[in-house]
Design a protein that fits this description.
Layout lengths: L1 H11 L1 H35 L10 E2 L8 H6 L4 E2 L1 H29 L13 H13 L1
Antiparallel strand pairs: 1-2
Helix pairs in contact: 2-4
Length: 137
């Protein structure tokens, strides 16, 4: 029974819950970035450079001629799908860039703004000298 209580305390700790939320949001964010790369960025890049769709760039490592990677794989032929790799690299770079900006923003928020110092008033020595001068009069 004691082990269940320890596990419950471990699982409910704030760091564990925060990490779980981060992993779930990270997975969803990865899906969004993949769609951004596959559906928005790569078609534009392909159009600008007059290249075919990158995801369909491949080399057949066996016998036969195939129009798509999927057709070659369905036929059981090994393919070197370097276009998919290019898409994955672009997605990774975009994800890394997005994380960089998020971390940079968080760090900027964490930094404390410099507190304006109040104008320096008279020091203790100045006050004592004023008292001395007043007593001399």
């Amino acid at each position: 029974m004691g082990m269940m209580k320890e596990f419950k305390e471990f699982a409910i700790k704030g760091n564990m819950v925060d990490m779980a939320v981060g992993i779930i949001i990270g997975g969803a964010f990865g899906t969004v970035v993949k769609s951004l790369v596959d559906d928005v960025i790569m078609p534009v890049v392909s159009g600008l450079f007059k290249l075919p769709d990158f995801s369909n760039l491949f080399v057949v490592l066996g016998e036969g001629k195939f129009d798509t990677v999927d057709a070659a794989r369905e036929a059981g032929v090994s393919v070197l799908a370097y276009g998919s790799f290019i898409n994955a690299v672009v997605a990774f770079l975009l994800l890394a860039l997005a994380v960089f900006f998020v971390v940079k923003g968080i760090n900027k928020l964490k930094r404390e703004e410099p507190v304006e110092e109040a104008p320096a008033g008279p020091t203790e020595l100045d006050v004592l000298q004023e008292i001395r001068d007043a007593l001399k009069k």
